[in-house]
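Running log. JK asked me to keep both predictions on one page so they can be read side by side. First protein, sequence followed by its tokens:
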Amino acid sequence: MRHLLACWLLIAFVAQAATLDDLAAARLHALALRLAPLHTPMGPPEPGDWLEAHEEAGQTFAQWRAAPRNVPTAKRRTICLQPLGAFDDARAFLVADTVAFLGAFFQLPVRLQPVLDLGEPPARARRVNPATRRMQWRTDGSCSSCAPTVPTTRSRCSA
């Protein structure tokens, strides 16, 4: 439970950090560092992990803070959630829970878009996960299918 609380505190710190001035961000970063003893470093990648096939250097707090953001504006105040494909009854709760979480976390209204049936993915947009042997969509080959559905008014959308 202690680790879960620390994780949520860190998420709250990070969520606020993008809008802080430099002095406040430095204070926030110092507080976050106090949580470091509760952190367990990642071990080596396991079979099927993203980092097993894709080497990444990681990102510091300062790098993350300096990166560009997609933030709400006066014209874009709604998060649109686009389900890709239908969810069976056993998994439908995931969509409702995601809508509730996004609204609570970002403190913005969330609009659930109609299901976008992408059909069978073309060969370039799919792969078989080597660890689970299950078919997966490749985002580099399938996200372009979603672009036409992004509303152009007063929304911030995520697929």
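And the second, directly underneath as requested:
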Amino acid sequence: MTLRKHTAQRRTPRGFALLEAAISSLLVGLVFVAALRCVGAAVEGRTDNAERVRGMLLVQHMLAELQTVAYQEPSWYLWWGPDWGESSSNRSTFDDFDDYDNYVESPPKNLLNQVPLNCSDWTRKIDVDWVNPADPSIQIGSEQGVKRATVQAIHNGVVVAQASILKGNN
């Protein structure tokens, strides 16, 4: 009688075990969540950037308009803000720098009284002050020959863009 050696046969795995499949699914899910967060942050950044650009354009258009008006009323009549016959709600009647003081328009309009595209929920605010000629960052309470206009573009109650312009009486 011959004895046979009994050798154990190795079993080769024929697929993923349940545990391996679960771990792989978890890793793929984590990578997917991280990718979605990156895409979300990029979209939010692009939206914020577009909002800032729109705000700066609204401010710059008003600054360009302010550059074209006189420092003070052309006549002897010196009145701060809109003068007699000028409407505080219609800036096309403004003829000097301080007429724009405390001017608020919502939505902002161009000189043709048209609302720019996608700006119906924006507000533009202008403040004009006398400033110290030696240091225009200091507001003063009397005429010294220099005025500063600060223009703000506001969206959803938040100041998105702001810039100032100086005007002298010479």
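Observation for JK regarding the second prediction: Residues 33-168 form one domain.
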